[in-house]
Design goal:
By secondary structure, the chain is an alpha/beta fold. The protein has three domains: 54 residues, no CATH class; 167 residues, Rossmann fold (3-Layer(aba) Sandwich), CATH 3.40.50.11720; 188 residues, Rossmann fold, CATH 3.40.50.2000. It has 21 helices and 14 strands. Helix 17 links the parallel strand 12 and strand 13. Helix 7 crosses helix 8. The longest helix has 18 residues.
Length: 442
């Protein structure tokens, strides 16, 4: 839920009232009552609450900023990786347009602000209720709505249709598992899908599943996967050189995008690997910022010296673990590691972006739960650029083998870079697809 995931602590009790199933007509009064009670208790600043009300589309306050007729809406509520390729394509192809980025979590918000502090406007997406969505769209008046991957918000799509705003689902993917999950809501979701201008699917299999869900065949195109158009940082080699100089020849592995339930496994794997490589350094980048402090504490409790990116900037001589507690730097740190583990894969999360380590030349290992990246993982494994362990012990064994085999790591690095290069092009095709919906260039 948007409110619970975005505003915590002393606001929880107030939000419990606002979270009840109100009819659209009294949602505003319910939220404002809850906000007033929180203010009376002194737990939250007034500005924060007013911003909260405005962000979910129930405030009548004056807008913070207004961009008439020159902006597009990009919804990346869950798929924060989308906050790289599409904004960069817009910035290069249509610098006259503003991009309004919506997310539903603090992590997405922080990532948007870290990547594009000056080039995009960020707000939280409102509840998918007709009134809230209507006020949101009337306030910002986007020229087009660009919805990433699987974010199917029916009332947002209906609201766009009612206002003549063309909606596009970009980098669209739909696994068999997700298709089954939509079964109960299939009539509603199918009706919403038929309001979309174009579903730009990652693959033909994804395209066919969207048609099965209810989209018309003529709405759906196979465009390719935007993640292959991953942007490699310009100063990547310099960054990696600085980091490796601080590591002084020590072996290094990275655990990236890990989730809370995978943290014990990462510590166990690191302990096992250090039994063979006593000077091994772990670069640890949790998926969610709220886990930064916890993984540092867990690592210290395991007996290792720990530094963090925010405080020490670089690994220290005797560190066993270096926590990457910043956003927007993960690709740089992939290039600093001999081998990478990508999380969200030892638990049934579905995996995370495997093309970023491939693009930077990191030999990559992952767990078995990859349903969100089934096609990418298949192609990487087939190319010899990815090793998949069926469980924690197998992942540890793969990492251990690669740390001991520089030739195998280099072969995987070369294969990964080559696959990424051959897969590029979806961004250019997407930008061509969007041109008719955008205002004329000034």
């Amino acid at each position: 839920m948007l409110l619970a995931s975005t505003w915590r602590g002393s606001l929880d009790a107030a939000m419990a009232t606002a979270a009840r199933p109100y009819h659209h007509g009294n949602l505003r009064s319910a939220l404002m009552e809850a906000a007033e009670r929180a203010l009376e208790r002194g737990g939250v600043q007034a500005l924060s609450l007013r911003e909260l009300a405005r962000e979910i589309g129930v405030s009548h306050a004056a807008p913070r900023r207004h961009f008439p007729d020159r902006q597009a809406l990009l919804d990346a509520s869950v798929h924060h990786e989308a906050l790289k390729e599409v904004p960069e394509g817009m910035r290069r192809g249509r610098p006259d347009l503003r991009l309004l980025v919506t997310t539903i979590t603090p992590t997405g918000s922080e990532r948007a602000r870290a990547l594009w502090p000056d080039d995009v406007e960020h707000v939280y997406l409102p509840y998918d209720l007709p009134g809230a969505v209507g006020r949101f769209l009337d306030h910002f008046r986007p020229h087009a709505a660009l919805i990433m991957e699987t974010e199917l918000w029916p009332n947002l799509l209906f609201g766009c249709r009612a206002r003549g705003i063309p909606a596009y689902i970009l980098n669209a993917r739909l696994s068999e598992r997700s298709l089954r999950g939509y079964r109960i809501l299939a009539p509603l979701v199918g009706r919403a899908l038929r309001t979309v201008h174009t579903v730009a699917a990652q693959s033909m299999a994804d395209a066919m599943r969207f048609v099965r869900l209810g989209a018309r065949a003529e709405q759906v195109l196979e465009v390719g996967n935007l993640k292959f158009d991953v942007l490699v940082p310009e100063a990547l080699d310099d960054f990696a050189g600085q980091c490796r100089a601080r590591c002084r020849g020590r072996p290094v592995w990275i655990a990236a995008s890990t989730h809370e339930d995978e943290e014990a496994a990462v510590i166990a794997i690191h302990r096992r690997l250090r039994a063979r490589h006593p000077d091994l350094l772990l670069l640890w980048a949790p998926r969610h910022p709220e886990r930064f402090r916890s993984v540092a504490e867990h690592s210290r409790m395991a007996g290792w010296q720990v530094s963090t990116r925010s405080r020490a900037r670089w690994p220290q001589e005797h560190d066993g673990v270096f926590v990457i507690d910043t956003l927007g730097e993960l690709m740089n740190f992939y290039a600093c590691a001999d081998v990478a583990f990508v999380g969200g894969s030892l638990q049934p999360v579905g995996g995370h972006n495997l093309l970023e380590p491939a693009a930077t030349g990191a030999a990559t290992v992952t767990g078995p739960h990859l349903h969100n990246f089934a096609e990418i993982s298949r192609r990487l494994q087939q190319a010899g650029a990815l090793r998949i362990g069926p469980d924690e012990a197998a992942v540890a064994a793969e990492l251990e083998a690669l740390l001991a085999d520089p030739a195998a790591r280099q072969a995987m690095a070369d294969a990964g870079r080559a696959l990424v290069e051959t897969g590029r092009g979806a961004l250019a095709r997407t930008m061509v697809l969007l041109q008719p919906a955008l205002p004329p260039v000034r």
